[in-house]
Design goal:
46% strand; mainly beta; 11 strands; 7-stranded mixed beta sheet; 4-stranded antiparallel beta sheet
Amino acid sequence: QEQLVESGGGLVQAGGSLRLSCAASGLTFRRHTMGWFRQAPGKEREFVAAITWSTGNTYYADAVKGRFTISRDNAKNTVYLQMNSLKPEDTANYYCAATPPYYSGGYGYTRLAEYNYWGQGTQVTVSS
């Protein structure tokens, strides 16, 4: 059974850093583009970053460009999100997601509907 498990969330002061991890099981990890999304209270879930299965190309939301870095380790079936220079507006529940295998990304990997596997989320709180 496919499973994605996030870890690494917590409470951090503004300007600090956190690294989120997402461990995948039950799927052939290297064949899936992986994404990170976040959802703040009262808001819709939004795209944060993605890394493709084939070339390792990365994509970022404008709000996090230059501060967040997505990476993957196919040997460990794990995707990471390094978050630096955190701001209070980054406070949200962060979710890991995987596309179907070999997905070519018709919408740039930014839409929830492009992903069919989701983790339970990890909370990130940034204090001012």
